[in-house]
Each structure stands twice: as C-alpha cells, then as structure tokens.
Amino acid sequence: MTKFNKKTFFLMIMIMSTVMVMSSNKWLSVWMGMEINMMMTIPFMFQNKSKELSEKIMTYFLTQAMGSIILLTSIMMKTYNLNFMIVMFTTTVSMMIKMGIPPFHMWMPEMLNKMDWITLLIMITLQKINPLIVSSQLTEQNNLLNMMMITAATVGSISGINQLSLSKIMAFSSINHMSWMMMCMAMKNNLWIKYFIVYALITATLCLTFNKNMSFYMNQLNHNMMNMNKMMMLTMMLNLGGIPPLPGFLLKWMTMESMMVSNYFFMMTIMIFSSMVTLLFYMKLMYTNMMLSSTMTKFKLMNHNKQLYLIMLINLITPSILLI
C-alpha cells in the first residue's frame, strides 16, 4: 500500500469516527469514536524518525489520553447518578483539553510548530469536530462555558501578536475562533455549524497556499510568491479577520446580533476587541508581503495556480449559500 493510499485510508476512518460521534446516542460510543479519531491522527503526524517529531506525537497522545480518561470518568459518574454539576464540569474540562482551549492550550501551539501544513489543517479542523459536537450538548446550566469563551478569545488573540511562526499564528487563530463557535452554542442555535464550515474553508485555503509556497515563517512569505497568490492570501486573511463584506464578517455579524438579543453585551464587547487584536497580527503578517514586490519574473507570473483560485472562489461563494 502506497503512502498516499495509507493516508487516504486513515482519513476515511477519521471521517467515519466523526460520523459515529455525530449519530451516537450513548456516551460510551461517543468516547469510542473520539479514541478512534485520535489513533487515526497519529499516522498523519508521523513523517520521519526524529526525536523532535516523536516528542510531539507523544505530547499529543498523552494530552488526548488525559482528556479521554476524564471523559470516561465523567461517564462512569453519570452512570452512578452522581451530582449533575460535577459530571458537567468534568465533561467540559475533558473537551477543553481535547480542543486546546485555555488554560489547557499550552500543548497545542508547540506541537503544531514546524508541523507540515496538511497535518496542521487536519488538527485545527477535523480534530475539532468531535469535541465541538459534545460541547454543543453541554450548554444547559453550564457556567464553565462563559469562562471558556472569555479565555479562548483573550488568550487566542493576545498570544498571537509576537509570533513569527505561521503554524503558531494559525494555532492561536484557531483558539480565538473556537470562542465564537462556543458563543453560538451558548445561544442554543446551530449557527456554530455554519461558522465552523466557513472557518474550515478559509483555513484550508491558507494552509494549502502556505504548503504550496513552503512557507513556515513570516519572512518566507516574500520569496517566490506570485502577485495573484499574495492577493488571494490577503483576501483570506481579511476574511478570517471578519472584514466586511466578506463571508467571515457576515457570520460574526449574525453571531453579534444573536448576542444582543440574548443580552450578552459584556461578552460581545470582549469578543469584538479580541477579534480586532487578531486582525492586527493578520495584517502584520500581510503588510511586508504586500509592500514588497515579487522576486519572480514577469513571464513566471503568468503561471497561475488554478486549483488554489478555484478553492478561494468556493470559499467566497459557499458561505453565501449557507447563510440563505
């Protein structure tokens, strides 16, 4: 079996485990689906025999195993009809560990640093689905959810300001966007699903662009990048930051409208300011990239990457269909 076929096989099982969690009505089968998902992610991370990579895989495994143990403990507590609030607290903490929500986030940026872009894309999109589905079932009388939103919004925005690694910037951006999705959950609507789809599309476009240009640090964005690729990356960064009239803004606008209806004014203020801070490091990322001219020849500029442009077009059109 070739390397491509192996990864395709693992990806299919990962998607099937996600479907298993989505369709399950038993906590034990939810735990089993999350365990399968975790084990199928490790082959994506394993690229070569190096001490650094082995350390990252072990960090990921131990962190996810800790979250699974806490989840399994809360399932056992629920079976013996213990205090509802204690069960809710332990289950929420296990999901925070799995998603990398502050204060349990320290493993995530360090592990994703210098990871290849396809693996990073899977980690910050597909790996978030199962914990988000479980968290959406825990919104009833869950006071811990408000703390999760505030810490994710503030830490995800402030920690990304001084970062030079693109992997860490995407990791902290993911933490910040998790707070918006959890806010949608707190208002007991399914807007978080639409938000996640749009976020996944934008992140996929950026990660594939970084992967094509072999860029891992901010100073590498200026080299060997075509002008059209620069414009596409700027559009996606503005989309991720929530600048009108792009789809990323429309979703944040709808979330803020629901927050005002539900009287979440204090939370809305924190979320807006944190979103402005994330926009700061998005623009810092693109400033030098847009100001400096391309190092490639004019004839080379005609060789556009049609696949990435098609993905960007889908990225801009699909959210409009979701919001109808």
Automatic annotation (TrEMBL):
This is NADH-ubiquinone oxidoreductase chain 2. It is found in: Mitochondrion inner membrane. One of its GO terms (biological process) is mitochondrial electron transport, NADH to ubiquinone. Core subunit of the mitochondrial membrane respiratory chain NADH dehydrogenase (Complex I) that is believed to belong to the minimal assembly required for catalysis. Complex I functions in the transfer of electrons from NADH to the respiratory chain. The immediate electron acceptor for the enzyme is believed to be ubiquinone. Core subunit of the mitochondrial membrane respiratory chain NADH dehydrogenase (Complex I) which catalyzes electron transfer from NADH through the respiratory chain, using ubiquinone as an electron acceptor. Essential for the catalytic activity and assembly of complex I. The gene is ND2. Its EC number is 7.1.1.2. The lineage of its organism: Eukaryota, Metazoa, Ecdysozoa, Arthropoda, Hexapoda. It catalyses: a ubiquinone + NADH + 5 H(+)(in) = a ubiquinol + NAD(+) + 4 H(+)(out). It is a multi-pass membrane protein. InterPro entries: Complex_I_Subunit_2, NADH_UbQ_OxRdtase_chain2, ND/Mrp_TM. Belongs to the complex I subunit 2 family. It is an enzyme of class 7 (translocase).
